[in-house]
Amino acid sequence: MSNSDASAAQRGRPTVLDRGAIATATFRLWAERGYAAVGWKDIAEATGVSVRTLVRHFAHKSDIAWIGVPAATRRLRQALEDTPEQTPVSDAVRRAIVASIADDPMTPAGPDWIQVVCTEPELAVTAPAAYRPWIAELARFLDQRVPDITPTAAAALASGYQAATFSALVSWCESGSHERAADAADEALTWLSVRAG
């Protein structure tokens, strides 16, 4: 293959977009320079993905911040589905939440991610929509497992768990701890309990 043929092949659309690598590089840029100071061109240079491709996959720059939430939602759902019936609800919820943020390099729980989403108003505004599916999964489980709970109460309780988890991650980040983020969330969530009857 000639150099011109190789160049033409490299200019084509990537067959698979590595969303994790894009998010990791972008979070690092945002943490170093600030969210507002980083444009699409900077993200393209850091990731090796063209601006045109980035914009095709992410309608807004803020969408990159929530790239790990769908996978975390799938892990949460699977952990809840795998929970034995006899497991106390509070334990089931805590374990599933920890599973949703653990053991995945694309988990939205790294220090760069937390630093950015805690300090950028544009991201704070988009957070409720990003977390809605995760909260809905947890609310569905609570609605099924907690006698007499209303759907409204289940949704409120699930939202409370999401807020508590995020707060634990923020504290973990600010402390400079060397423990895993999931372990910090696990410890914090042991203080919450659901009255199941």
TrEMBL record:
Pfam families: TetR_N
Keyword Glycoprotein annotated: no
Residue spans crossing the bilayer: none
Domain HTH tetR-type: 16-76
Xref: InterPro entries: Homeodomain-like_sf, HTH-type_TetR-like_transc_reg, HTH_TetR
Keywords: DNA-binding, Transcription, Transcription regulation
Residue ranges for the DNA-binding region feature of this UniProt entry: 39-58
Protein name per Swiss-Prot or TrEMBL: Helix-turn-helix domain-containing protein
Natural source organism: Saccharopolyspora mangrovi
Organismal lineage: Bacteria, Bacillati, Actinomycetota, Actinomycetes, Pseudonocardiales
